[in-house]
Amino acid sequence: MSDPFSSSALKVEQPRRGPFGKSRYKVLDGDDTLLAIAAPTADGGRAEAMRGILPGKSNLDARAVRLTTPDGDPLLTVDKQRGRDYTEILGVKDEVVGSFVTERVGRRYVIYDGDGTLLGAVDVDVPRTNFAVTDNDGTKVAHVRKRWAGLATHLLTTADKYAVEIYDPVPQPLRTMAVMTAIVMDMNLHESKEIT
């Protein structure tokens, strides 16, 4: 299977569906061609969905999304553990492709491959809208930017849009991890829409 994320310019978007649209994403290339869709791996039902809109909801709950091609072929799973400390990226056979480990909550995450070897880091700006992905030498290999969609969209829906720019060539698995940064950072930092 060829790499569906081979484009150096990608978009990651959540549907505008109110509080029930959490943990659903579309991955598109620069020409808006749909490359992948992501949906929760388990359906917690209406009670679980309602917890997302009640006061006190945070991004600390464990959850996972499975990415598939538009035809339904499995690609990857983003498995966010409870809290904000650890998120794994799993391959088609549930093998660990890599992980994001919190170094400073909301500010810096380190990236490891499936064997636990350090690959690089994600540095986050203060408003949590720009994510610089670097390799072990500190060279920037990708930039992920959360686009502002307006106050009403931000407060009343889960719709978030990210632009992902990869500075090719980037070796695997760091390239895959750079592409997944948008979904991982959204699940860790932006899914809760409360004003805090």
UniProtKB/TrEMBL annotation:
Residues 1-23 are annotated as: Disordered. It comes from the Bacteria. GO terms for molecular function: phospholipid scramblase activity. InterPro entries: Scramblase, Tubby-like_C. This is Scramblase. It comes from Actinomadura hallensis.
